[in-house]
């Protein structure tokens, strides 16, 4: 996706910067601002699609969601010392939803 569509999306959906002055905490690296998470995801998706070598991919949304959620949940749980209530709050989801997803992915 290039040109006007990419610019429209970039302005319509605010980027998430995890290393901003107001969001820096003890776990953040104090350095130059990093690329938004969206850019890292876009790079990974482009790489994945390129690796398909013209083959079709079925259920790409489910594959991508799983590949994002598993490390996201594991890292947030680690950050919260295994406290699922704190992790769910940090993720912005209900604790029961987090527990269901953890069971679903076999990491409960």
TrEMBL record:
<dbReference type="InterPro" id="IPR005412">
    <property type="entry name" value="Fis_DNA-bd"/>
</dbReference>
<dbReference type="InterPro" id="IPR050207">
    <property type="entry name" value="Trans_regulatory_Fis"/>
</dbReference>
<protein>
    <recommendedName>
        <fullName>Putative Fis-like DNA-binding protein</fullName>
    </recommendedName>
</protein>
<keyword id="KW-0238">DNA-binding</keyword>
<dbReference type="Pfam" id="PF02954">
    <property type="entry name" value="HTH_8"/>
</dbReference>
<dbReference type="InterPro" id="IPR002197">
    <property type="entry name" value="HTH_Fis"/>
</dbReference>
<dbReference type="GO" id="GO:0006355">
    <property type="term" value="P:regulation of DNA-templated transcription"/>
</dbReference>
<feature type="domain" description="DNA binding HTH">
    <location>
        <begin position="65"/>
        <end position="105"/>
    </location>
</feature>
<dbReference type="InterPro" id="IPR009057">
    <property type="entry name" value="Homeodomain-like_sf"/>
</dbReference>
<dbReference type="GO" id="GO:0043565">
    <property type="term" value="F:sequence-specific DNA binding"/>
</dbReference>
<comment type="similarity">
    <text>Belongs to the transcriptional regulatory Fis family.</text>
</comment>
